[in-house]
Specification:
By secondary structure, the protein is mainly beta. The protein has 4 helices and 11 strands.
């Protein structure tokens, strides 16, 4: 929603980077999105702040007029800093600088992801696959698509990429070591750097996820998003909080 707001605010520009801070869980219902331009540069870059707020009473009805908006009654749920550039800005080429620059591929090792049922509770909302062949090295591959992308009903756009980036799974070394972690996890901070979208439609997004470390209940990871032709769409920096397993409390003897 923050990205949709900035695209409406600056329709002639493209999004270069998104840095989101998740303050509190959101509710399904009305919200206020505040957009504030922080800085524009002579190099055609613009930095804006987008804050998503919701009423302190979850069942509050939609405002009939912006004049009825009382900021003191609303709580900030998501704070986002977005950098945009003019549509004519040309970015440089890319190279993944790690020990294994292999791009993810969609093959028989891609299996349906449990995320669809575990978090979304509806497999017809989104299609997610996983390949855990390299998971014990801290790496996992994903494939993500909308159920009706192939027939042209649901296009994968820049907002879809941000959605996909936040749904990626944790690699097995972290998810399976019960003494360290047990699901669920939640995103605290996510930074996305976008490249210009390709000319041809995006049918499927392939993601390469590398979790670098787990320190004091926080996982840091890097993600690269590719289209079905191997074109790099975006790279993502994740900071996630995980629920650490707590030792069972001993019952006091009465």
């Amino acid at each position: 929603m923050a990205m949709d707001a900035i695209l409406r605010y600056t329709p002639d520009r493209r999004i270069v980077a998104v840095n989101s801070f998740f303050f509190k869980p959101g509710n399904a219902g009305p919200c206020i999105v505040e957009v504030k331009e922080l800085k524009s540069s002579e190099r055609n870059f613009c930095v804006a702040q987008v804050v998503l707020k919701q009423h302190q009473q979850p069942q509050q009805q939609l405002l009939s007029s912006i004049d009825d908006y009382n900021p003191s009654l609303y709580t900030a749920k998501l704070h986002t800093i977005i950098t945009t550039a003019s549509s004519s800005y040309d970015s440089a080429s890319f190279h993944i600088m790690n020990n294994d620059p292999a791009s993810p591929v969609f093959d028989n090792n891609m299996q349906p992801s449990p995320i669809m049922e575990l978090f979304l509770r509806a497999s017809d909302v989104i299609t997610i696959y996983e390949n855990h062949e390299r998971s014990y090295e801290g790496e996992v591959w994903h494939a993500l698509e909308w159920p009706h992308t192939s027939d042209g009903q649901q296009l994968i756009d820049i907002k879809s990429l941000a959605c996909f980036a936040d749904l990626l799974n944790i690699t097995k070394p972290y998810a399976q070591h019960n003494e360290l972690v047990r699901l669920p996890r939640m995103t605290l901070q996510m930074e996305i750097k976008f490249r210009p979208l390709p000319v041809n439609p995006i049918q499927r997004v392939l993601a390469k996820v590398i979790m670098s470390d787990l320190i004091d209940g926080f996982i840091n990871g890097d993600v690269w998003l590719f289209d079905q032709n191997g074109y790099l769409l975006a790279n993502v920096r994740h900071q996630m909080a995980v629920e650490t397993a707590q030792p069972a409390k001993k019952k006091a003897n009465l």
